[in-house]
Amino acid sequence: MPGDRVGIVGVSGYLGGELARLLTDHPGLNLVGAVSRSQAGKTLQECLPFVSDGANVPILPSTETLDCDLAFLSLPPGEAMTQVPRLRERGIRAIDLSADYRLKDPAAYERTYGRPHTDPEGLSKAVYGLTEMERGEIGAAGVVASPGCYPTAFLLGCRPIVDAGVVPREFVIDAKSGSSGAGASPTAETHHPAVAGDVHPYGGGNHRHLPEIAQELGVKEGDQVPEIVFVPHLVPLVRGILTTSYLVGLSEDQEGRAIEAVRSTYAAEPFVRLGPVPRIPWAIGSNRCFLGTESHGGTLVVFSAIDNLLKGGAGQAVQNANLMLGRPETEGLPLGGLGL
Ligand SMILES: NC(=O)c1ccc[n+]([C@@H]2O[C@H](COP(=O)([O-])OP(=O)(O)OC[C@H]3O[C@@H](n4cnc5c(N)ncnc54)[C@H](OP(=O)(O)O)[C@@H]3O)[C@@H](O)[C@H]2O)c1
């Protein structure tokens, strides 16, 4: 099959599986190999029977033998930064779906993830991959840092507002996520019996996505700096995220400007739709983010629904790969959601 050669590292995980599903159906990218320590020696089809085609895609034991133009790394935090420098030496571009290249300041990375950053050179050149906001830089990037799933949902709704100069006194972000956001290895907090009958706040006010959200809000010098309160919850769903963001302390004029900023930013965007208060199932199976707003007299509420495994993960990564490899941005990506 012609097309740029891509590979997946961490294919046995949830995002790895979703990447495999998208890339085996992609008309312009050629999935030539995948890496998994636990599944090495199998074919992709043996490892992931649900993909449409993968009988000729080998699963390799290590990234060292993966030969491709661009590699997707869907690994636990701390792993990608050990692998990206070696890929760079071999001329292979990378999209990291973990947090290793998201925080621009290595000290902030160490504070947040409890370990020093081992690839400051790569970090200094990495581009944050929130596609609709960073499109100009993504195409030529050697390393793209895929945004976290919660930051994707929140920032798509609220970055245009701050970019338009409307800065609330406070952002209160109430976020709900399905359990696949925690990855394939169950823990006492995330396995089925613990989440199936509960709605459970977590993170203790100190979730790792908070520094990323603050960094990417990009409040400009001279603006008032808003307080950000971020409370994620696990809900009894497998896929999907809904963020309900309260922008506190806006005048009527600011509310109008905020809604207009969101409307005009996304008027021609294929993967963001502003409409009524969104439902999570609209976004499931789709690479779209669904946004809605509500005015509550001085507090504007911005709702954002995404599929964490697509727009919040593998879908956004493929959107960025399309840009990096000169393909149409929407190629190989689902627009419609399941709805139920
Ligand atoms: N799940 C989401 O909704 C989501 C969304 C956005 C971003 N992310 C981020 O994307 C990354 C991948 O997420 P995921 O949910 O796909 O994770 P996952 O289900 O836990 O999969 C990670 C994979 O990495 C491989 N791996 C390689 N080295 C490893 C090591 N030292 N320890 C453990 N596993 C290792 C494992 O496969 P082998 O053991 O077979 O090698 C595993 O299947 C994470 O950093 C996550 O924070 C996740």
Write up what this structure looks like.
The chain is about 30% helix and about 20% strand. It has about 350 residues and is of the alpha/beta class. The mean pLDDT is about 95. Helix 1 packs across helix 12, helix 7 runs parallel beside helix 9 and helix 7 crosses helix 10. The strands form two sheets. It has a seven-stranded parallel β-sheet with strand order 3-2-1-4-5-7-6, sandwiched between helices. A seven-stranded mixed β-sheet has the order 9-10-8-11-14-13-12. The two termini are about 35 Å apart. It is globular and about 60 Å long. The chain has twelve helices and 14 strands. Strand 1, helix 1 and strand 2 form a beta-alpha-beta unit. The longest helix has 15 residues. It binds NADP nicotinamide-adenine-dinucleotide phosphate.
Number of strands: 14
Task: Give the C-alpha Rg.
Answer: 19 Å
For the termini, the CA-CA separation is 35 Å
- Low-pLDDT segments, ≥5 res: none
Number of helices: 12
What is the residue-averaged pLDDT?
A: 96
Major sheet attributes: 7 strands, parallel
Amount of beta strand: 15-25%
Mass-distribution shape: globular
How are the strands of the largest sheet arranged? 3-2-1-4-5-7-6
Q: Provide the list of bound ligands, each named once.
A: NADP nicotinamide-adenine-dinucleotide phosphate
Q: Structural class, from secondary structure content?
A: alpha/beta
Give the ordered list of helices and strands: EHEHEEHEHHEHEHEHEHEEHEHEEH
Q: Roughly how much helix do the residues carry, as a percent range?
A: 25-40%
Entry keywords:
340 residues, 7-stranded parallel sheet, 7-stranded mixed sheet, 14 strands
